[in-house]
Amino acid sequence: MQLSFFASAAIILSGDVCPQPGPLDQVVYDVPSLSIKANGLSIAHLNVRSLTGKSDQLNLVMSNNKGPDIWTFSETWLSNSIQDEEIHVPGYNCVRRDREGKQGGGVAIYYRESLNFTEQEDLMNANESVWIKINRTRCKALIIGNVYRPPDQPLDTFLDNLNESLSRIDSTSDKVLLGDFNIDFSVQQKNANFPLKRRLWGITEAFDLKQLIMKPTRLTEYSETLIDLVFTNSHHKVVESGVFDLGLSDRSLVYCVLKSGRPRVAPKTIKYRSYKNYNKDSFIEDLENIP
User: Fold this and answer.
1) Angle at CA 165, nearest 5°, toward 163 and 167?
2) Is the sign of the CA dihedral 211, 130, 104, 154 positive or negative?
3) Are 40 and 68 in contact (CB under 8 A)?
4) pLDDT tens across 132-161, in order?
5) Strand order of the sheet with strand 228-232?
């Protein structure tokens, strides 16, 4: 017994072992807080590379009330074997479109429960995309499209499908198109990617869509590329846009804020007992008279 005691004491004094270790299944995630200061309806996109693999971290980030009202994700890596309940985030509803036939890909949109929305299935085609319409009080209808272009998808096919979707949208609607286009929109004009950029630019300009993101969204040891993009025809209503590194993927998050239409949080009713006129003697007397 004495030998066991001294052995235990020696191990603790070594500094390598905690004398009261906690459960092994507890994991602490170091996830930065995304707080958007501008007032308005905020919309963000992230190439997440597996929703289920990062569900705990995303729950922490999305639970922040100052974060985006609408989250769009590409490369969700979901399949029909994964139920909506498995990727549920409190306070949000989800619209998803999984890749069929093979693994990878997929897109999804999470929107706050207070938002009035309609899924726009008529805008979907062979592209990996999902579209919704947000109905806002005293504002134009807002069409949000989340698009993912795999690197191996022919550009002509992608642009034809994108043009088809955009042409079906009412021209009076506000539009925000965002996602991972895998087309570099960096300011470098003489790189090999420029012809692809120019062709996408031609489609978006035809629908008066302006690209908002100016900083690289994918950084490697040898390159910086801007391939996660945000387009809108309501650029005069944009009060903030930018890039934010969440550390959850090899991509940065991109976002924009429109100056109107932010959903109001439902009011909370709090009941409490007032002790403003409290009298100790009367209170004790009332207690004594209770059966």
Assistant:
1) 65
2) negative
3) no
4) 999 987 888 999 999 999 999 999 999 999
5) 116-119, 128-135, 142-148, 174-180, 228-232, 210-211
